[in-house]
Design a protein that fits this description.
Layout lengths: L2 H11 L11 E4 L5 H12 L3 E4 L2 H9 L3 E4 L7 H14 L6 E4 L14 H21 L1 H4 L7 E8 H5 L5 H25 L1 E8 L15 E3 L5 E3 L4 H5 L17 H12 L10 E4 L6
Helix pairs in contact: 2-3, 2-10, 5-8
Length: 284
């Protein structure tokens, strides 16, 4: 085969007229804003149908010609997880192809002051909830129909390296990589399921914005958890806040979501059980 024919063959393989995810049904948790919302939009652009948690994002996708439904609820609620999976399967005519476990937030505190409530809330949110979602979706992934199946768990550099003030978040995000590898080893051999982790560094979202901006999450009991990084902490860097990032800037939500799309796509068809770091080179 000549070099030109080989190039043509590769180009043909990379051409997806209906989108790289055409005909696939994806669950993306935490898609109301930030990285999750961008994942939803990018997946829709590639032909995927979505089950999400946000009416506004769904409306935007539908107005652009995509297909999506919103299933609002709390991933810490077992009843909600059951409903989420059932509605996704109904939406997909009995099939689910992709799960992106993205929902989450931080509730920081130094070790000696962290409460049990802080600990359990964040560990349950970032590690237990993804496990329960995957477990509930097992009947739709442990199948042999020749169609691709993907599970993508979102992690963080806090889980890879630890981070002062985030011992709860670090534990959960480190644990999710083990969850990912176990899924790959259990469901890869007989069912062809791919499972990978995407670990983000500093991405510009409400979790990394100035705390003084007032973003918060309200817990079921009414308690409010403030989000963001205190301005004084940012100022303490003396203008060198991103000095440890070779690109010298935070990533955007679109850049983060693009990495998730790449992992879910056929372009990563032989990548399984891996942790893909999206950090701008930070801590390499």
């Amino acid at each position: 085969m000549s070099a030109s024919k080989r190039v043509d063959q590769i180009a043909g393989h990379l051409n997806y007229p209906k989108g790289m995810l055409a005909g696939q049904v994806a669950i993306i948790t935490g898609s109301g804003q930030g990285i999750g919302a961008e994942c939803a939009r990018l997946f829709a652009n590639e032909g995927a149908k979505h089950t999400e948690k946000a009416e506004g994002v769904v409306s935007s996708i539908q107005s652009s010609g995509g297909q999506a439904i919103a299933v609002t609820g709390d991933v810490l609620d077992d009843a909600y997880i059951k409903t989420l999976i059932q509605k996704a399967a109904d939406f997909g005519n009995g099939k689910i192809h992709i799960i992106v476990n993205n929902a989450g937030y931080t509730w920081d505190g130094v070790i000696h002051k962290m409460t049990d409530k802080q600990w359990h809330t964040i560990v349950d949110l970032h590690a237990t909830a993804p496990f329960k979602i995957v477990r509930a979706a097992a009947p739709y992934f442990r199948v042999k129909d020749g169609e691709p199946r993907n599970i993508i768990n979102i992690s963080s550099t806090s889980g890879l390296h630890g981070n002062a003030g985030q011992i709860n978040y670090a534990l959960a995000k480190a644990g999710v990589t083990g969850v990912t590898k176990t899924i790959a080893k259990e469901w890869g051999p007989n069912f062809g399921v791919r499972a990978n982790t995407v670990a983000f560094g500093h991405i510009a979202t409400r979790l990394t914005a100035a705390k003084e901006a007032g973003a918060f999450v309200q817990l079921p009991d009414g308690e409010k958890v403030a989000l963001g990084i205190p301005q004084k902490q940012k100022e303490a860097a003396g203008g060198q806040e991103h000095a440890d990032i070779p690109l010298r800037r935070p990533g955007t939500a679109t850049e983060a979501a693009s990495a998730v799309l790449a992992v879910a796509s056929p372009l990563f068809s032989y990548v399984n059980g891996e942790t893909i770091k999206v950090t701008g080179g930070r801590a390499m």
